[in-house]
Fold this protein.
Amino acid sequence: MSEIKELRKDFPVLSREDNGKKIIYFDNAATSLKPKTVIEAINNYYTNSTANIHRGVHKLSEEASIEYEKAHDQTAKFFNAKKEEFVLTKNTTESINSVMYSLFTGDFFEKGNKILLTKMEHHANLVPWQLLERKGLIELDFVELKKDFTLDMQDFENKLDKKTKLVSVAHASNTIATINPVKEIGKMAKDNGSLFLIDGAQSAPHIEIDFPKLNADFFAFAGHKMLGPSGTGGLIAKKELLEKMEPFQFGGSMIHSVELHKSTWNKLPWKFEAGTPHISGMIGLGKAVEYLKKVGMDKVRKHEKELTKYALDKMQEIDSVKLYCPKDKEKQVGTILFEAQGIEAHDLAITLDEMANVAIRSGMHCAEPLVSSLNDKGLDRASFYLYNTKEEIDEFLNALSIIVKSFK
Ligand SMILES: Cc1ncc(COP(=O)(O)O)c(C=O)c1O
């Protein structure tokens, strides 16, 4: 993006310097930086109109309710979902757990059913389902990966059977970065009569999401990875399903009427937002999607593809650096999982931080089954976002080359 220099001024953390070196933030897959508009909106809520929503009749409460609902609607619209179809959660993990819990308490699964996942899932899309397996209710099955780190669609077809009640797959992997063909997976899942959940934590920040076109029942995402505040995430789900589903949590706000022994539920989406929500977070998330929309998701993706190709080409030239991803900008997001042979993942991340002020992630990346099978001591990950530049990649790779040589 030509306007990148201007855009970078919107992110205060990017002007931070340590020991005379500008910060290079390549840990975007963990969480993104926040633009000033998001920070200011949160500040404004606490400074000028702090109040609870959907309760008081005074003007502060009314103002807060209006701002909250405006941001809520904006966020649903960003995903081309109906306003009843978006539920604010605290992160992707809570969104997926909520679906699990609601299906479980709604007796959706019967003994002998199967849930089909893949071998590239984040713990958030694995551990919740293990509860159902521990209870002896369902069996988990996993689609294999091919050698080029893409999903083995033949294996998916083979494993999708009549017992499969739910398919739950990452849209893009947080480790190997692969973008999965979710529309195709969704079509096959629907034809099979299975529910389909997309873990969109790594796609929503980088790829335009048109929820109705994905053939999905559920789409879970992290607001905090797409310029929004920490403690924000979301669940998008088909209205017809949400209408039938059990609430995830019970208490205030989510009710229509309450008697001592029974209650009825509020209309969508409030039926699924029990208690006081993260009001400032929702307002901030509204500003985040406004920011992304203004830039344009097509431009975000285009810029990240350029960065990814640039980094992939250069990293493959460094001796002893090994990449674990499709190595194709069309098949992956801007995340590069790698190792510098002979250097432990955490040692490399610490050295890059201390020497060059480069922030990357190291370890198991909350995907232990996959990452430990690639390297039992963990791997390093550099992940880019709309404000990163080729110059930053040059600085990172320059430091990486020096470190690799000095460890020899
Ligand atoms: C693919 C994927 N799923 C789920 C999660 C969990 O997200 P959150 O931290 O928002 O709960 C992450 C976080 O990195 C992720 O990358």
